[in-house]
Amino acid sequence: MLAETLLERIGNTPLLRLQKIGRPFPSVTLLAKAEWFNPGGSVKDRAAAGIVAAAERAGMLRPDRTLLDASSGNTGVAYAMIGAAKGYRVKLCIPANASAEVIKTLKAYGAELVLTSPLESSDGAIREARRLAAKEPHRYYYADQYNNPANWQAHYRTTGPEIWEQTQGEITHLIAGLGTSGTLMGTGRYLKEQKPSVQIAAVQPDSPLHGLEGLKHMTTSIVPGIYDERFPDLNLEVKTEEAYAMVKRLASEEGLLAGISSGAALAAGLVLASKIEAGVIVMIFPDGGSRYLDEEFWKQ
Question: Quick one: what percent of the chain has pLDDT higher than 90?
Answer without folding.
Answer: 88
